[in-house]
Write a structure and sequence with these properties.
Layout (H helix, E strand, L loop, with lengths): L1 E3 H11 L4 E4 L5 H12 L9 H13 L4 E6 H14 L8 E7 L13 H6 L4 E3 L5 H15 L3 E6 L6 E3 L16 H4 L6 H12 L21 H17 L6 E4 L17 E2 L5 H10 L5 E6 H18 L4 E6 L2 E2 L5 E2 L2 H7 L7 E4 L5 H13 L4 E6 L3
Parallel strand pairs: 2-3, 3-4, 4-6, 5-6, 8-9, 8-10, 10-11, 11-15, 14-15
Antiparallel strand pairs: 1-7, 12-13
Helix pairs in contact: 1-2, 1-6, 3-4, 3-10, 9-13, 10-11
Amino acid sequence: MKTTVSHAIAHALIDLGVEVVTHVPGYGGSETFQAFNELSLRNNKFSFHEEAAYTIAHSAGICGRRSASLMKAHGLMKAANSVIDSLYSEITAGFVTIIFEDKSGKHSDNILEIVPILQGLPLRFVQSTTSTIYEDVLKAFNESERLKLPVALLVDALEIKNETSFEQKSELKKKFNYKRDIYQHVVHPMLSDYQYKVFLAKKFDGDTTTILRPDLPVVPVDFPERAKNTAIKYAPLFDVFKNFRGEIVTGDTSGLSSFAFPPYDCVDIVTYMGGAVPLAIGAYLSGFKNVWALSGDFGFVSAGTIGLVELIQREIPLKIILFYNKQAAATGGQLINKKLLRHLLAGFEKSMMHIANPLDPFEVETVLREASNSNEFKLIIADYPE
């Protein structure tokens, strides 16, 4: 088959059965994203920020769907918060970030050499050529699934309209089954030593099966004092939430992520602070329709609102619980200006619900039940006293 580089990439993604494709507009990526939508007869929505785009696709890979994220080299820098944590978690199906390099700087603010950055992370990558682009996409997904890690594919954006030829392959699609595994899907301080050893083993192509998994901590007794106090505060809400938790629950790096551990087992996927919403979007796009996202207010203000934009863009009926502490509880208790959240959520009144007393199990159950039974997006504010 003869076609352009952009269409060759799109054909490869379709032949592989890639189901979740995210993209932030930029030269090279936009042409490829348009080709993918046209050839697959889909109407995938573009993203506004690479951090969310990367996270949505990464979550889909965790949840058993081959996925790809298309962005410029500069965009990977904005996604780095999510990229770093993704290297400490395992995916179930292949996830490839296709990076379009603007080596001339004609379509960017400046010229960015991305290879040293990828090597420093380190994020494995495949360097493509015009003549081998179709096979390069297949190679990148094969490497991702071999390592169970994200892999990047580098494409020269200036060659995106060049003609290439390839022999289209069949029987490339494969089914993957998601299985909850918080050792690999929850990036958490209590697992950091184990996850770092796994990271190092993969970095040097070592054997991860020989690494002993630690015993999981029990909430709240096995936690340090500050984390224990936070867990005790949140426990009454989680005592009720465990009955409504749905198929997938995502969280971010805060005290609430501790409830991934027994006896609660209420959180399934956690990466960076503020990542709960885009992680939940990725799970939803992977076919899990009863999905909840849990976020602390600091993480939500700092990065979670980026995910909220993506949710509205795609009109996804997620259920979000925002633990409103008015402080950065995970980083020392720095106070959060109460005006911030009010202004950030000013346009979402119709979707908001409130738990005035998170310590009252009857109120918590009433609100969670109403949200669970709704077919619309709901943002629940659990208002904790200062």
